[in-house]
Amino acid sequence: MKDRYEIILAGSGGQGLIVCGMMLGEAAILEGKNVVQTQSYGIASRGGFSKAEVIIDKEEIIYQQVIKPDMVLALTEEAMEIYASGYSDIPVFYDTTLLEAREGDNLYGFPFTEMARNLGHTGTANMIALGAMSAVTGLVKVASLESVIKKRFSGKVADMNIMALCSGVDLIAK
Amino acid sequence: MQREAKLIQGNQAIAEGAIYAGARFFAGYPITPSSEIAEECSRVMPRIGGVYMQMEDEIASMGAIVGASLTGAKSFTATSGPGFSLMQENLGFAVMAEVPCVVVNVQRSGPSTGLATKPAQSDIMQVRWGRHGDQAVIALSPSSVMECFTLTVEAFNLAERFRVPVILAADEIVAHMRENFTLPAPGEVKVFDRKKPSVNPDSYKPFEPGEDGIAPLAAYGSEYVFHVTSSMHGPEGFSNNSPANAAWKVAQLHKKIERYRDEIVITKTFDVEDMDVLLIAFGAVTRAARAAALEARKEGIKAGVLQLVTVWPFPDREIAELGKKAKTVVVPEMNYSGQVAGEVTRVLGPATDIRRVNKYNGQIITPGDILEEIKRGAKEVL
Amino acid sequence: MSHATGQKYLKQDSLPLMWCSGCGNGVVLGALLRAFEEMGFKKNETVVVTGIGCWGKADDYITTNALHTTHGRALPFATGIKAANPRLNVVVLMGDGDSVTIGGNHFVHAARRNIDLTAIVVNNYNYGMTGGQFSATTPKDSYTSTTAYGNPERDLDICALADVAGANYVARSTVYHGYDLQNHIKEAIARKGFSVVEAVSPCPTHFGRNNKMKVSVEMLKWLKEKGVSREKYLQLESPEQKGYFVIGKLVDRDAPDFSACYEKIRVRALVV
Question: Start and end of every Thiamine pyrophosphate enzyme TPP-binding domain (chain C) (predicted)?
Fold first, then answer.
């Protein structure tokens, strides 16, 4: 496990990337880390470009933006092009339901959205992705993400998200 | 009790800071990138006996918080560029009538509508000079979520203490950034309440300064009856157009702040003891400057940072002291004209090597942008 | 019971009034201060909020709490006062410029919000203080210092605007009908929610002089003749062309005011 992670979550507005970044950050705080989460977005609430950045560090985080990412999640072709195409040395996660499948040792393509739909709600695609990302990199503990889910949601919604998280972890364990 | 760390946004920390400071009245008009402050207040105020009012525009918002403050309520508003422009007239009223209140301006790209969701630091001169008439002003600029909280509390303290509107000149970056935040326990951060009159109601003069230079402020509805006006007025609060009175009043608006300048001005320094290159920064750009200074040191250039936490009154003395030790000074800011760099030049004089790093395209100044200028400076001057 | 004089609310050391001879402001001021006395208002629990203009100077002659604000913005300041401390009696004095011209938006929203304020609007059909330029209430084709060839714009009906925006109480009177005016002011103040009393008033110095009514008496005669009851108004043939206007109580509602509604929100917020 590294002392510092810089993560980019990119796609389009309405995909829940900012909430996803927040939940990742909250999980890291539970583990005693410092977190900065930033975002850039356009004027439209739905559609348009959206990006969340998360930095997790044991030490004080001075500059708040990602300079060189340690991992990327891409949920649109455009996001893949801008944030992941230049890297072969960091894990890049992308959604094969929404993007063309591609080859590469660092590429982790999974049908997050399709899996989420099968679970009952496409909104849980991010949780599946977070599960996979944590399992590959040790970014945060799955238990921490679970606590965050339970704090944020209750009842069936919480259960569905935890199921999504676990199915994401299972993608890597397989 | 262990207080829980949360991940919250700068805007939310501003709202929490206001409530911690005792604010119980918010009036505003939603505008990106400040709307989360209004939203938070709309949720919290009704629960704590406070009032959230969504006014018809920012002109009305500014008027409403002044009215509320005169009933004794700590009040504030939050806005951005276009809204801040609309507030200027009634902000000037608060200055003239010496009404404590806090105005949060989350700076965004302009002029006019500009890039509505993108950051800027281009209102620094508007904060200082945006209103007609001569006046002193206090403005603070946070660089982190925690500072969003602490400086909002400080803004209320200064407003209450000096009977002035205080401007929190935040920017879109800190406002929307989320960071670890632990709400201080009650009493952990100092909270100041305005001085109330103790004289007999018949002899109360709402604008007569006490020995400390500040006039106690009664509340509408208390046993005191008082008159407040936007026109030039004497200590009794009634119109007074005599030249001698006008001179006294205008000077009083300045002197009450000048006298306490050293208690008002806050700066922070990072690695300045042995520096050759001094970076002067404020708001979120402080973070890029600090990162750039650390990078420069890795490359053998001794760089340090002076953060202007208080932007007005301008930290002249702090800049002069460090400036004379530096071989070159770099001022990064998100505007074209170098609003703060110009002030730094005024303080340090044209003989000092002062370098500007300006970005005005809605994009954030990076450590790389600043490092480039540090290296150029080191090559040319060191 | 002796008749109220309103003297104790009049700031004697500011006299004489700064207004021109023949101006109606003194009549409205007298009616207001007598209303205060009859209602037993305490000075420390009453706030008079004014805007800018001739009538906006009225606070200089009043001994209650007062707040003299910026042009057109008296209502927002008053809204802040009332919302923060609903126990205060807040009366807002504005001219036609303050209320429905530069401050028209605030007027609409104060009425919509139904905040418990009483607006006493003195309508003299022009900007008296700055030399008699036209305002939003200046009748079409009349002459002012900025309509030398007649006013090309239509005028706005203050009371109709207050009505459609949701005010609880609206009445119109004139300084000729001083006693009615005082009663309307009392009713308006007593009514919860937003209430408006329009006092049509002569400005002989500017509007009168520019429109063939140089002497105040001519203007008072004009008010006497043109201000008619609703019944009489409805009997008139094309009354608008003849310049008649309705006086009396025009709106009488009892919708809950802002503070009452906000109290319910507070209860809900604690339950959620």
Answer: 58-198
Over the stretch C195-219, which tens digit does the pLDDT of each residue have? 999 999 999 999 999 999 888 898 8
Q: Are residues B272 and B178 in the same domain?
A: no
Q: Each residue of C36-46: pLDDT tens digit?
A: 999 999 999 99
Mean pLDDT in order along chain B per 10 residues (382 residues): 84 98 98 98 98 98 98 98 98 98 98 94 98 97 98 98 98 98 97 98 97 98 98 97 98 98 98 98 98 98 98 98 97 98 97 97 96 97 91
d(CA C123, CA C109): 20
Mutation target to probe the C interface, by most C beta carbons within 10 A, among B70, B77, B226 is B70
Among A162-166, C33-37, C164-168, C210-214, the range scoring the smallest mean pLDDT is: C210-214
- Cβ separation B117–A41 shorter than 8 A: yes
Contact A107, A72 (CB under 8 A): no
Q: What is the CA radius of gyration of chain A?
A: 15
Q: Which residues of chain A lie closer than 8 angstroms to B117, CB-CB? A: 40-43
Give the total number of structural domains in chain B: 2
pLDDT of res. C243? 83
How many A×B Cβ pairs under 8 Å? 54
pLDDT at A107 over 50: yes
CATH number at residue B61: 3.40.50.970
Interface test with A, best of B179, B183, B295 (most A CBs within 10 A): B179
Q: Do C84 and B68 touch (CB under 8 A)?
A: yes
Q: Please give, rounded to a whole number of angstroms, the shortest distance from the CA of A172 to a CA of chain B.
A: 28
Residue of B nearest to C46 (CA): B221
Contact B7 A37 (CB under 8 A): yes
| Residue B148 within any structural domain of the chain | yes
A152, A37 contact by CB (below 8 A): no
Q: Which residue of B has its CA nearest to A53?
A: B177
Homologous superfamily (CATH) of C7-271 is Thiamin diphosphate (ThDP)-binding fold, Pyr/PP domains (3.40.50.970)
Range(s) of the domain holding residue B306: 268-381
Percentage above 70 pLDDT, chain C: 98
Contacts B59 to C, Cβ<8 Å: 73, 76, 106
> Does any domain span residue B340?
yes
Distance between C96 CA and the closest CA of chain B, angstroms: 18
B9 with B142, same domain? yes
> For B240, phi and psi rounded to 5 degrees?
-150, 110
pLDDT (0 to 100) of residue C2: 61
Given B5, B32, B176, which is nearest A38 (Cβ)? B176
The 8-class DSSP code of residue B359 comes to: -
If 0-12 CB within 10 Å is exposed, 13-18 middle and 19+ buried, where does residue B201 land? Answer: middle
Using alpha carbons, select from B196, B191, B195 the residue that is nearest to residue B157.
B191
Sheet with strand B5-9: strands edge to edge: A107-110, A92-95, A71-74, A4-12, A49-57, A34-41, B178-182, B5-9
Mean pLDDT of C14-20: 95
Whether there are 3 or more C-beta pairs closer than 8 Å between B and C is yes
Q: Residue C67 forms beta bridges with which residues?
A: B228, C49
- A110 is in which domain, residue-wise? 4-173
Residues in chain C with CB shorter than 8 Å from the CB of B90 are 69-70, 73, 76-77
Of C181, C184, C171, C142, nearest to C250 by C-alpha is C171
Per-residue CA distances from C171 to A17, A142, B134, C92, C196 (Å): 56, 69, 42, 15, 6
B280 and B155 assigned to the same domain: no
pLDDT digits (tens, 9 = 90+) for C236-261: 887 666 789 999 999 999 999 999 99
Sort out which chain C residues have CB atoms less than 8 A from B66's CB and list them.
Answer: 77, 80
Residues of B in contact with C64 (CB under 8 A): 225
Using the beta-carbon criterion (under 8 Å), do C80 and B46 form an inter-chain contact? no
